[in-house]
Amino acid sequence: MDFQTLRFIVVAALLYGAFHFAYHKVPDDVLSNTIYPNVIGHFAAKTINTITPDRNVKVHNNAILSKKAKLNIVRGCDGSGVLFMLTAAILGFGASFRKTIIGLLLGTLTVYLINQVRIVGLYYVVEHNRAWFPPVHTYYAPTLIIFLVAGFFLIWTRWATASETNKTGDA
Fold first, then answer.
1. What is the C-alpha to C-alpha distance for residues 65 and 73, in angstroms, rounded to an integer?
2. If you compute the radius of gyration of the chain from its CA atoms, what whole number of angstroms results?
3. Which of 21, 74, 137, 167 has the most CB atoms less than 10 A away?
4. DSSP 130
5. Are strands 63-65 and 70-72 parallel, antiparallel or unpaired?
6. Given strand 63-65, what is the order of strands in its sheet?
7. What is the pLDDT of residues 124-155, one digit of tens each?
8. Which residues of 137-161 are buried (b: 16+ CB within 10 A; e: fewer)?
9. 46-79 pLDDT, tens digit each
10. Taking the domains of the chain in order of start, what are their residue ranges?
């Protein structure tokens, strides 16, 4: 294993651990009463109400509610883990400052949008067949998110190194 690969693994792992440590210092009530409704819940509710206006979905603290379903957003189901993984990987990769910032901004937006699709999808799963919720929530959606975010990281790394390879004349 070369030094650059080892550096990437160590830096990304340390950052990932630090992000999780800091995340678990945030009190649950701050997440449930402030962050989840304002950052995740209202956007998801608006999306659901746009797709199916008859649902009249509301947000109360960390819950997305309608007459047909209730979905709680809790710690760990907010996309934070995959965001921490992607952020640690981008920072550990060692691209230029500009490309790192672009990766962080686009990566954060990508994770946010993927997680919003997941939250909206899970609402409809709860509404239509609660028995499907555990496997979709626990296995299928997280696996899909990891693949999509890994795909983003792969595309970003190719872009972040492409112009450097062209500048040095390497093939």
1. 11
2. 19
3. 137
4. G
5. antiparallel
6. 58-60, 63-65, 70-72
7. 999 999 999 999 999 999 999 999 999 999 99
8. beeebbeebeebbeebbeebbeebb
9. 999 999 999 999 999 999 999 999 999 999 889 9
10. 3-162
